Amino acid sequence: MLVVGSHADRRKVQRQAREKGLKIIYADPEGFFDKNKVFTPYPMEAPKDEDLVLQITAEQFTNLWNR
Question: What are the φ and ψ backbone dihedral angles of 31, each rounded to 5 degrees?
Answer without folding.
Answer: 165, -175
